[in-house]
Design a protein that fits this description.
Length: about 130
């Protein structure tokens, strides 16, 4: 059985990717295959990469405050490109009031500052399954 494949992406114009890199490394160290797309990705670019790389999950990181528009846009692009079954989770500077809105839009989990790497890895292990 192959390890879970996870794409870590930074949507939008947010130029701070330290957190995304730390998450990518923690997931890799936990035994997952991780692809990091780098900065300034559009929802279309993220979805295209996710489908091409045949990932099981997409982890989005954002600090700019555009999460309510960009996270759902990534999910919509995944649907358009045949990746509706790809699990999307995210994190960053996200107000607590916005988390239910993101979950209603299809984001499976949202991690905010202070979430431990262990809790994120554990969540992935418990909630992401290989796509068939």
């Amino acid at each position: 059985m192959r390890p879970l494949r996870i794409l870590v992406a930074k949507p939008g114009l947010d130029g701070h990717d330290r957190g995304a890199k730390i998450i990518a490394r923690a997931l890799r160290d936990a035994g997952f295959e991780v692809i990091y797309t780098g900065l300034h990705q559009t929802p279309e670019m993220i979805a295209e990469a996710a489908v091409q790389e045949d990932v099981d999950a997409v982890g989005l990181s954002i600090l700019s405050g555009a999460h309510l528009s960009l996270f759902p846009a990534v999910i919509e692009e995944l649907r358009k490109k045949g990746g509706a079954d790809i699990v999307v989770f995210g994190g960053g500077i996200i107000p607590a009031d916005d988390i239910p809105k993101l979950k209603a839009a299809g984001v499976r989990e949202v991690f905010t500052p202070g979430a431990s790497m262990e809790s994120i890895v554990r969540w992935v292990r418990e909630n992401v399954r290989p796509r068939s």
